[in-house]
DNA sequence: CATAAAGTGTCTACTCGTTAGACACTTACA
DNA sequence: TGTAAGTGTCTAACGAGTAGACACTTTATG
């Protein structure tokens, strides 16, 4: 729903975006298996022909939705921190906050984890993406030279973070982004390793 | 963003809808006076020419937004009650619940009351619409034959209801629709008059 | 089991919403 | 005072989106 595009790609993306949004709503209402292409175009107020211009079928739309959201999540982690939020500390760096911020901004999508018959692959690929971000975008530094299997440590902290995120989403985002981030910071302090964004070098 | 339209009007309305949504977001970000037509089309990903096809200027868009939302509010009050919600009682009839339901559904818009430099006319016309609904769509029946100036009574209850709505919105919808409606019902019980939807005749 | 009802995927020709870009203004401001 | 940004209007051209038909497949129903 945002910024730059050169002419025609703007219209294309806009339509795809609307079809995705329609799918999200219908997944919540009816579930993945019972949603039809007709349901989607009716909800999004497009012609059925238009759907097939953009996607082969329901499956391709669902995959596009999942992939674009998870890629957005990855990308958001690497972005410079948005000013105005002062929770950015030495222990928990900007990327983690960006993840939280991205999820909240797109909460309409991430709420899909609360449903059974939901986006195929969401329940497995969402945590995998968190792990991927931890593996690729964070550097972990030892505090007191205690040796630790770094791969295991990253998995451990990534899935720990995911657990908190999952709970936050399932609870309907009852606490604010700032409150949530502070919870995470408090827990992070108990670790022997501090972690750091790779961009800080 | 919903259902029926015959062909071309679908595209028209869709575009107008997007321009309105863009305006809502930008009102929150920048305020009414500093928002430009360019801001709006940039945000909504349209060409500036497209804007002038649909609206004369920013003012006309703002009026369309305000009027359409308030008309929607009026219309929602008269609609049959949606099943699935069981708060519908003898004291507070379906229309009141529909109002609450409509506001919550469109909370993104109604949050605009939290801003100073917001939609022109919103702060005055919103409560006026509530009053209008009370005047036109409700019948008030005396319980124990105590005479009351009915016009005053309608104003009193309408603005009382508005006060609660305003608080609910300003608080960021912290309680659910059901909880809110029950608050209203409790307060309504203290009245000597019961009110009734005109449709019940 | 047969038949209807609903959904799917594909294709075509049309149409009208949208675009780029130019023009002559009017503000705003350093 | 000049220049950067916004406004409102207009035009030619593009192409996203539309209607509607076709030949299926799937699901539900008597």
UniProtKB/TrEMBL annotation, chains A, B:
Domain HTH tetR-type, chain residue ranges per copy: 13-73
Molecular function as annotated in GO: DNA binding
Residue ranges flagged as DNA-binding region: 36-55
Pfam families hit by this protein: TetR_C_8 (PF14278), TetR_N (PF00440)
Keywords from the UniProt entry: DNA-binding, Repressor
Domain of life assignment: Bacteria
Gene3D superfamilies assigned: Tetracycline Repressor, domain 2
PANTHER family xref list: ACREF/ENVCD OPERON REPRESSOR-RELATED, TETR-FAMILY TRANSCRIPTIONAL REGULATOR
Protein name: TetR/AcrR family transcriptional regulator
């Amino acid at each position: 729903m945002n910024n730059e595009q050169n002419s025609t790609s703007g219209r294309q993306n806009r339509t795809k975006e609307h079809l995705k949004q329609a799918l999200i709503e219908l997944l919540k209402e009816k579930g993945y298996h019972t949603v039809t292409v007709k349901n989607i175009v009716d909800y999004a107020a497009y012609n059925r022909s238009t759907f097939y211009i953009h996607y082969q079928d329901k499956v391709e739309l669902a995959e596009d939705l999942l992939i674009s959201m998870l890629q957005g999540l990855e990308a958001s982690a690497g972005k410079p921190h948005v000013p105005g939020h002062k929770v950015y500390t030495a222990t928990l760096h900007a990327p983690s906050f960006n993840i939280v911020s991205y999820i909240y901004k797109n909460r309409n999508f991430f709420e899909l984890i609360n449903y059974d018959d939901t986006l195929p692959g969401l329940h497995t690929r969402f945590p995998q993406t968190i792990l991927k971000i931890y593996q690729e975008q964070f550097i972990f530094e030892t505090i007191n030279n205690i040796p630790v299997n770094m791969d295991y440590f990253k998995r451990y902290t990534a899935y720990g973070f995911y657990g908190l995120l999952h709970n936050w989403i399932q609870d309907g985002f009852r606490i604010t982004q700032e409150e949530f981030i502070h919870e995470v910071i408090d827990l992070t302090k108990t670790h022997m390793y501090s972690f750091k964004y790779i961009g800080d070098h």
